Amino acid sequence: MGLLDGKVAIVTGASRGIGPAIAVRFAEEGAKVVVAARTVDAEGSRLPGTIGETVDRIKAAGGEAVAQRADLAKAADREALVARAHEAFGQVDVLVNNAAVTYFTPVADFTDKRFALMFEVQVTAPFQLARLVLPEMRSRKEGWILNISSRAAIHPQLPPDARGTRGGTVYGMCKAAIERFSTGLAAEAYADNVAVNALSPNKVVPTPGTLFHHLTTNDDPNAEPDTVMAEAALALCHRPAGERSGRVAYSQDLLNELGIPIPA
Fold it and tell me: Whole-prediction pTM value?
């Protein structure tokens, strides 16, 4: 018996990085997973990874999964994603909002178009997806919504270090917003046993995105494996709201608190 047997999970941003790691880990625990991202064809992307590859990994291990192309900047694609989950598996028990589009540019040079896109994908999309799945979770008196955040939400210190000056202000704004959304919705949904949490890695995870932005390297000894985030995500997506909800958690800290071994 897996921790998520009989559950259906949507994981966004599941073509590369943390998203596939969470999707695969949830499938290992018995969840049927709908993996979503824009990248269907590897030839059309500058970064490796596709949702089809994530589905193949899950099926090769004996799990169940379907891929749904979704541009989360578009409301229609967000609606279609939830509809696909219902069509394929009949319900949604777990929603993991992991998708992101990120530009590291100082405020003075940030374009309106990029600003709007980042907030649409990282704030508006999680908000709308949560609203789409919340009614059924409330009706069943059970559900889990997990929003992936970042230490970028923490306010920089002055005088600033390199992190504070590299152009991450808008990214930090998005993640701060998603954390406040998580705790607020957790309070609203608590009585219906719907757990809502935000989860950040303790350290930078080497993903195609973070490598592209030169935030870490593949051989960085201080980096965090994506398996750590996946294990922490699982810990926040199977217990009742009365036990684990309304948290802004950090992966390794959470696993240590719960006595769960940190994966390599």
Answer: 0.93
